[in-house]
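Recall from the previous lesson that a structure prediction takes nothing but the amino acid sequence as input. Here we apply that procedure to Glutaminase from Lentibacillus kapialis. The sequence below is the only information supplied.
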Amino acid sequence: NTEETQEWLQQYVDDWVAFYRKHTGDGHVASYIPELKNADPDDLGIVIIGKDGMSVKSGDTEIPFTMQSISKAITFIVACMERGVSYLLQRVDVEPTGEAFNSIMHLEMKQVKKPLNPFNNAGAITVSSILPGDTSNERLEPVFQLLENMLGHRPAMNHDVFKSERDSSTRNRAIGYYLLEVGFLESDLDVTLETYFKQCSIDVTIDDLARIGMILANDGMDPKNDVEIIPRQIARITKVLMLTCGMYDASGKFATYVGIPAKSGVSGGILAAVPPRVRDESMPFTRGCGIGVYGPALGDEGNSVAGIRLLRHIATQWDLSIF
Ligand code: GLN
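The prediction returns the following C-alpha cells.
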C-alpha cells in the first residue's frame, strides 16, 4: 500500500534528519566567499524523488541556495551537448586529482596536458571557456535552458553571491591566469571567469537538485513523458565523474561508505543520482531516484558534514550503493 509506505518512509527520514542535525556542529559554513557566511549552520534538509513519482521531503526543504560547484556538472553536460563529447574530452580529462577543489598543484606537472577533470575549479573554468558565446549571459543561456527543461521553471541568479565571489576570488583568478598562460583556455579570461562566477551563483532548492538527480539516474530521460533531456552517453559520463570526482578528495570515502554518484558545492548542497537496482524489491526507490541535500556546515573537504552522514545512513539502510 503506497500510502502506508509513504508514511513509514516519512517517519524514518524525519527521525534521521532530526538525528543528523545534531552533527552540523562538526562543520563550518564557508566564509571565503563573504556572502555565503550568512547561511544558518544548523540547517539540514533532504528531498528524494523517485522515478515512479514517489517523493519524501524532510527538514529545511524550502531554503534557496547557490549551486556553487554543483553547477560544474550542469555546465559540463551543456558543453558536451553544444560542442560534442570528444571535443570536451580532448580538452579536459576524466581523472580524479585527490586534491582540494581549488588545487593548482597538478596543473604544473609536466605530463599534464589538460585539467584533470571538469569538477575541480581548473577544469570547470576551462569548461566555462569552451561554452559558446561572446558574453557570460550568452554562454549561460543554454545552461538556464537545460535547467528549465529539467525543473519546469527557470532558476534565477543570486546577484549578491555573484558579486561577492567576483570581488573576492583571488584564487580562481590565479587559476584562470595559469590556464591562460599554459594555453588551456579556449576564450577570453574575463568573460570566462564571469561565466564561472555566475554559474556558481544560480539559486536552487533541494527539490530542484532531487529532480536533476532523478533525470541523471534515469539516463537523461524525463520519466514523466519519456523525453530525452540529456543524451544518455553524456548522462553516463557525468555520473562517472560524480562518483570519481564529485566530492573532491573525499570521493573515495564517499564511494566506499555511500556508493552513489553525487556532486557537492560549498554552499552545502549535494546532488545525488541513484540508478535503478533490483537486488531487493522490498527496499524503497528500487527503480531509481534523485536526492537533494542541503546542510551548509561543511567538513574539511568542503562537503556538507551532516548531509554526508545523512546520505550514508540512508544508503546503508536502503541498500542504495551501486556496488
Ligand atoms: N564558486 C566556488 C569556488 O570556485 C565553488 C567551489 C565549490 O563549491 N566547491 O570556489
